[in-house]
Write a structure and sequence with these properties.
heterodimer, A: Glutaredoxin, 2 domains, five-stranded mixed sheet, two-stranded parallel sheet, 6 helices, B: mainly alpha, 54% helix
Chain lengths: 221, 270
């Protein structure tokens, strides 16, 4: 009788091994296939590992909305910004899909700029603020072209690498000539809530408009 | 046999280093098969739970972010079971460091009672609740993620960022709430040995069922056992080692193997 018991146990063991091999083959095969045939590796790297969701890490960058001429990477301003800069200041809004603070800021931006768009898609619109045309550009880093993605690093003045990030590009007088001049803020722009951050955005637009009007005559695109 | 525990310590330290390879510029698009926050400025990969949350956020399903961590964890756990908790997880290493304190605390009657309570086995189900409710359901339905209050994220993401860039950041409105959870986490691991792994860790909950079918597992040979109970006493997960068979709680740390005087407990591959 013990012999029969051992045989049954052996059969179960064999079936278990076969099942284990099949499951491992399926899981590893699927993983390998996914890595080879999809962009999942790049997506995880670019959308999750590289960009910090500031609200997820429970931090607010100490935003200093100082205007500067020097881009964060030393690269020139992107073409899509320069193209719009001849019309007026350019406001860039960067976010990712998964970002509660970005979600909190959306209604504020919709109010300030009087716009409506799908957060997962690129969007731009030129809006009149008094006598100044401001171009609003919404960039979701998870769904954007490489050039626009690169602009995130270019304007990440404080090297925070986090979203939400807001940049306003205007014109400033650099010794001898007029150049693009920008300020970048993050999160709730140093405020306790999105509503107050909205007021800061309004101030950013006002400051940028004033500077733009002072310098636009000397600007050659 | 003490060599086994030294090897485990080296493995834990080694993987802590691997998790922080971002410090030398190595950042990858892989998910860790253990708990570590990609918010850490030096993180070399993504948190598997954070990736799952990206795949579900506010009901917007991104299949690849759901399947990718599952395939990585599934492949690892099918072979090694829940060994990642005992051998490579930095939070496991932290709890290894707090274990002597927890052991001292265990001498006080209240904590002893808590550990030996007949309801203790039910408290272990909390981690499954955390996984289903906070990682999957609230993320998908409301956008509230476990990451928003994750104490491991606080420890390995928020604090390193604050330490490395003390002038760049200030705590935001969610910080006090997350800090409270973090303090509870510290209290838990100081009062109860492996308290995080046993009761709360949602990643452990995801890995635990694989122990039932994994290739590597811990086998107890009852014929050799002299019932000295040394294994039961030393088990950091407080498992009834004598009667265990592919226990989902076993983290394959090998402490029972190390202490068994008759070598009745061994790793087994099938």
């Amino acid at each position: 009788m013990p012999h029969i018991g051992n045989q049954i146990q052996g059969d179960i063991m064999q079936k278990r091994i076969v099942a284990q091999i099949i499951i491992i083959a399926i899981l590893m095969g699927s993983l390998g296939d996914m890595l080879v045939t999809t962009d999942v590796y790049d997506d995880v790297l670019e959308r999750i590992v590289t960009v910090i969701c500031l609200s997820c890490v429970k931090l607010e960058p100490r935003t200093r909305l100082d205007f500067t001429f020097d881009t964060a990477t030393g690269e020139p301003h992107p073409q899509f910004v320069l193209e719009n800069l001849s019309k007026g200041p350019v406001f860039l809004h960067y976010r990712t899909d998964v970002c509660p603070a970005c979600d909190d800021m959306e209604p504020i931006l919709h109010d300030v700029f009087n716009v409506s768009y799908d957060i997962r898609e690129g969007f731009h619109k030129t809006i009149l603020f008094g006598d100044t045309s401001v171009t609003f550009i919404h960039i979701n880093l998870d769904h954007t072209r490489e050039k626009k993605r690169e602009s995130f690093q270019i304007y990440d003045k404080d090297n925070i690498n986090g979203v939400p990030m807001f940049t306003i590009v205007t014109l400033g007088y650099h010794p001898a000539f007029v150049k693009p001049y920008y300020a970048t803020g993050y999160g709730f722009l140093g405020q306790e809530n999105p509503e107050d951050a909205g007021l800061v955005i309004q101030d950013m637009i006002d400051d940028a408009s004033t500077t733009y009007h002072q310098n636009r005559d000397g600007y050659t695109p | 046999m003490k060599k086994l525990q030294l090897t485990r310590l080296l493995s834990q330290l080694g993987f802590l280093g691997i998790a922080n390879l971002g410090a030398v510029g190595i950042k990858t698009g892989f998910c860790f098969p253990f708990f570590y926050c990609h918010g850490c400025p030096y993180a070399s990969g993504a948190c598997p739970l954070g990736t799952l949350e990206h795949g579900l956020y506010k009901g917007h399903i991104v299949g690849q972010f759901l399947l990718f961590p599952f395939f990585i964890l599934g492949s690892t756990c099918m072979i090694f079971g829940r060994a990642a908790c005992g051998w490579i997880c930095p939070i496991g290493l932290l709890q290894r460091a707090t274990a002597p304190l927890a052991k001292k605390m265990g001498k006080y009657s209240f904590f002893k009672k808590l550990g030996n309570s007949s309801n203790e086995k039910y408290i272990r189900y909390v981690k499954y609740f955390v996984l289903i409710a906070l990682v999957f359901l609230t993320t998908a339905l409301t956008g509230f993620m476990f990451s928003d209050i994750c104490p491991v994220g606080m420890l390995t993401g928020t604090f390193p960022l604050l330490i490395l860039h003390p002038t760049s950041f200030t705590p935001n409105v969610f910080f006090p709430f997350a800090l409270s959870i973090f303090i509870l986490f510290i209290i838990l691991i100081v009062l109860v040995g492996r308290g995080w792994c046993r009761y709360v860790c949602p990643l452990g909950a995801l890995m635990a069922p694989f122990n039932k079918i994994s290739v590597l597992w811990v086998h107890v040979d009852r014929d050799k056992c002299i019932e000295c109970m040394a294994c039961v006493k030393i088990c950091p997960m407080k498992i009834d080692v004598l009667n265990m068979y592919r226990d989902p709680e076993c983290i394959l740390c090998g402490k029972c193997i190390t202490i068994c005087p008759t070598s009745a407990i061994k790793y087994k591959v099938t």
